[in-house]
Amino acid sequence: MSETTREILIDCSTAETRVALLENGRAAELFLERPRRSGSVGDICLGRVSRVLPGMQAAFVEIGTEKDAFLYVDDVREEWDDFEDLLPEEDLRPRAAASIDDLLKEGQEILVQIVKEPIGGKGARVSTNVALPGRFLVYTPFSSRIGISRRIEDEEERERLRGTLEALREGEGGFIARTAALGRSLEEFQKDRAALIALWKSIEVRARKAAAPATLHREQHLMLRAVRDLLSEDVAAIRVNDHEAFERIVEFLNAVEPQVISRVKWYKKSASLFEEFGVEAEIEKAVRSKVWLKSGGYIVINPTEALVAIDVNSGKFVGKDSLEDTVLAVNLEAAREIVRQIRLRDLGGIIVVDFIDMEEEEHRRRLFEAFEAEMKRDRAKTKILQISEFGLVQLTRKRSRASLERSLTRPCPSCAGSGRIKNDFTLALEIRREIWKLKQSLSAGDTVLVRLAPEVGRILREEEKEIVSDLERELEISVTLRDDEGLAPGRYEIAIL
User: Fold this and answer.
1) Which residue in 11, 246, 319, 386 could disulfide with 240, CB within 3.0 to 4.6 Å?
2) pLDDT tens digits along 339-371
3) Residue 84 has pLDDT above 50, yes or no
4) Comparing C-alpha atoms, which of 362, 288, 294, 282 is closest to residue 334?
5) Is 215 exposed, middle or buried (0-12, 13-18, 19+ CB in 10 A)?
6) What pLDDT is stored for residue 486 in this prediction?
């Protein structure tokens, strides 16, 4: 795997925060948080068991959300795999199997943490195994064991960290060293430990006073989580387009890692941060099924209910040598792009990649090794099966939030569900960005007319009216919204009067 340079871009607006991780100048991961529609992974709740289902070995837990959360029997045990980059120590053993109705009763109050946000018609998934992430450590108050991130491979460093964690462990609870712990000092760990234990004590105090269902702790804002979880030695810069957000990030880093504050850059240009670094274009491509390769080949990504199917095609690429060499070249290029798209779109569950058939075993081996090496960039937990003689690679990938497609689009009403279009909230935010891009063409006092679907207009008038008021104040213009039921789904028009 070649050396990689990373940057973190943080784009903040009233109704949405977006974070992009760039690798060698291209978007590799994207995160969205919409305050009134935000994900809740990491939140800790005092819940009440509403139903116990022995036949499914699971229970529903009321946590104050629209749909009750789902709790598997395995998640009532000491399950370590719910955190993104962690591997349990070799001597860990799960508790002996037990039936869900032996562990939980209807009406029982339990402390749970959300590990997977609601997706589709399903409620959130929760676990009783609380994990509080810090900059370098994860604190597990209900387990006394220690663990090391699977991404730290050097055995000498693993042994050093194991000894350090043993020294940190006092009383109840355990610690896991995150990837960012690599090479860090005892003093840095002690600082992280103190903050995490203080946080847990405050949650305990709230739990004793609360009545279920109640939220006891909310995860940090996306921009702070991104800095906490994505910042590493190879991150050259963190670029932020909002001064208030810039100051909050500096304040956060000053408390946990002051030596890297110089990497935080306030992006002051009037042009869009995501536009300048090509992220908007990548987002547009990431909701389409076909992705073109530089060689002229292409890949097709088709998410279904059961799995995600990815197909590789040679397209316009004819190569210069033998057919077998041409196929290998397309497959190797496709492998890199497929992994990037998996991460960018946050595809999860079962993924089947259908590479172009290759006759030579050596070529199949090279392709698999290249694909496997690219997947090491992924922070999500994955399992990959060997490439088959038909060129199929099967893998499973864990995710805790909705895919990019589900977040940004909805089923198209004009094609009986065979395709998707941008959802109304995504369109409302896109209209904001399109008006902002007209800044150089606008003068104080101008009126901007937007023809849009009634539901999109309702969002901008009622749910997110700050979007329009902020534009009017910052650009010194007037924005007129005109509903038009005759517009095709997903369409809008903007004009300067």
Assistant:
1) 246
2) 999 999 999 999 999 999 888 889 999 999 999
3) no
4) 294
5) middle
6) 87
Looking at the predicted structure, is the pLDDT value of residue 83 above 70? no
291 found inside a domain: yes
Position 358 in a domain: yes
The C-alpha R_g of the chain, in whole angstroms, comes to 24
**Same structural domain, 256 and 301:** no
Residue type, 82: D
β-strand partners of 483: 452
pLDDT number for residue 497: 80
8 A C-beta contact, residue 138 and residue 132: yes
C-alpha distances in Å from residue 267, one per residue of 12, 223, 230: 11, 15, 19
Angle between helix axes 323-345 and 279-286 (nearest 10 degrees) is 100
Residue 436 predicted with pLDDT over 60: yes
pLDDT confidence of residue 391: 80
Q: What is the arithmetic mean of pLDDT over 452-457?
A: 94
Looking at the structure, tell me whether residues 262 and 295 fall in a common domain: no
Is residue 250 domain-resident? Answer: yes
For residue 432, how far is the Cα from the chain centroid?
Answer: 23
DSSP-H helix ranges across 154-242: 155-168, 186-209, 222-230
> Which residues, including other chains, have CB under 8 Å from residue 60's CB and lie 6 or more apart?
49, 50, 51, 53, 68, 69, 70, 71, 123
Single out the residue of 40, 35, 4, 42 nearest to residue 18, CA to CA: 35
> Is 55 inside any structural domain?
yes
Q: Which amino acid is at 21?
A: L
Q: What tens digit of pLDDT does each residue of 214-230 get?
A: 999 999 899 999 999 99
| DSSP notation for 160-171 | HHHHHHHHH--S
- Structural domain span for residue 248: 6-37+223-280
**CATH assignment of the domain containing 321:** 3.40.630
Q: What is the pLDDT of residues 247-300, one digit of tens each?
A: 999 999 999 899 999 999 999 988 899 999 999 999 998 888 999 999 888 999
Q: What's the rounded Cα separation, in Å, for the pair 174 and 83?
A: 14
Q: What is the DSSP string of 49-71?
A: EEEEETTTTEEEEE-SSSS-EEE
Domain total of the chain: 4
Return the residue matching tokens 């213009």.
Answer: 477
Say if residue 152 is in the same domain as residue 106. yes
Mean pLDDT of the chain: 87
